[in-house]
Every structure is written in C-alpha cells, then in structure tokens.
Amino acid sequence: MNRFFLYTALIIYLASTVFYLMNLIKIRDYLERIAHYLLISGFIIHISAMVIRFIEAGYTPITNLHESLSFFALCTAGFFIYLKGIYKTGILGAVILPVISLLLIWSSVLPSEIKPLPPVLNSYWLPIHTFFCFTGNAIFLMSFFISIFYLIMENSIKRKKMLFFIKGIPSLETLDRINYICISYGFPFLTVGIISGSIWAKIAWGAYWSWDPKETWSLITWIVYAILLHNRVTMGWRGKKTAYLMIIGFFSILFTFIGVNFFIGGLHSYL
C-alpha cells in the first residue's frame, strides 16, 4: 500500500515540476499557484506513504537507501514549502521539484521490501537521529541551489546580461538572506543529528566516537558549516563567499550520505 501512495506522490510531484517549468518559460501567477498546490498535495500524500510504511514495518522507515532517499525528498519538499511561504521563491521550484522527483524515482527503483530491523537500529534514537540529519541535509540542499542561483545572478549583473531563465528570481540581497536562514536552521539540525548519533553509538557500540568514515565525514561537513556560520556572524561574510562555501559544504554532505556507502563502507554502510 505504501508503494501506491509513493507512486501517487511521485506523479503529482512530476505534474508540479511541469507547471513550475512552464512558469519558468513564461511567468504567470496562475501557473505558479497550480504548481504550488500540486506540490502541497504531493507532500501530503508522500507523508501518508511514510506513515503507512511505518505501520507496515513497525519501525521508523529510514533504514535503507530506498527509505532514506524518499525521506530526504520529503524533507526537501517540506522546507521548500516553508521557504515559499516566507519569500517569493516559486521560481526556484523549477529546479527543486525536478530534484525531488529524481530522488523519488531513484528511491522507487531500489529494493523496497520490508525486512526485520537489525538489532543495532532497534532504538528510539533512530527517528531522532535520522530526522535531524535528513532535515539538516534537505535545508543545505536548498542552500546549494540558492547559492548557484546567486552566483549566476551576480555574474549576469556584472556582465549586464540578464538571461531569460533568471527572471523572477529574488534579488541578490534576498537570496543571500535566504542562505543565512538556511545556515541558521541547517547547522543546529546537523549538530543535533551528530550529537544524537554519538549518544546512539555509545549505546550500540560502547563508544561515542569511533572515527568511522561516515562519522569522520560528518565532522568535516560540520566544520565547513561552522566556519561559514562563524565568519558570517563575526566577520560579516556575505554574497559570493557564503555561496561558494555553501556549495562546498553540500558536496561534503553528498559524499557523507552517498559516497561513503559506495566507496568506503563502515559501520553505517547499511544505508
């Protein structure tokens, strides 16, 4: 049953993507409204799919790559809806919705059978740790694309050549402010995710920190964003510096989330 709801959410996300892309080509308020309502509908159905899988499995369904990618897409959709409620970021939906859809497509082609939960994952720390980590990652995914748009905008303004596909994007100041919101929200989520993971590791493996590859890369990622937040607050970093470091930070997240599993392995390779 959860697969039916997941596929339904994917279809609606794809429909939202189409309307966001149509709005990108020819900006119309009604196109953006339709795209937004479809996004909210897909988000609600996606939540339903997660709840149904939770009921079917009997545990928090974020234990393998299929479930992780689905939950990551859900968090990304949720934060984009939140941002759109504060700022006029609808134009960014033309990039964010395809990414959400691709994440769900990737998730849907992976093995999805429900298996007995490994003893190490049978803990109330599972939903706490995964919620904070994946929400933080979703926020930083948003900042990654916002940073790219910022650099495109900044470069096009310098060249006095505004490209058609960046019409309707918020100003550089607004994009920079959104990036600050992302680091302000994402960093605490990432920090709590690492701390909760350390406590869980102590319970499961007898040590708070074992320098497992995923733990190490999580720390590297945390340091990158800590430097960014520190320099933003104390040294007034703005604009391009923030954008470049946000991009570097997200590549570190990407390697932590996917690269470590495929290329290095370790205690966390079950994802």
In total, how many beta strands?
0
Q: What about the largest sheet?
A: none
Average pLDDT number? 85
Strand content: under 5%
- Structure class: mainly alpha
Distance between the termini: 23 Å
Gross geometry? flat
Radius of gyration: 19 Å
The unreliable regions are: none
The residue fraction in helices comes out at over 70%
Series of H and E elements? HHHHHHHH
Number of helices: 8
Domain count, please report it.
2
Overall description:
The protein has 271 residues and is an all-alpha fold. It has two domains: 1-115; 118-271, no CATH class. It is built from eight helices and no strands. The model has no long low-confidence stretch (mean pLDDT 85).
What structural keywords apply?
single chain, 271 residues, mainly alpha, 2 domains
Briefly characterize the structure.
With 271 residues, the protein is mostly helical.
SSE topology sketch:
Elements: H1 2-25, H2 29-57, H3 65-86, H4 93-109, H5 125-158, H6 172-205, H7 213-234, H8 239-264
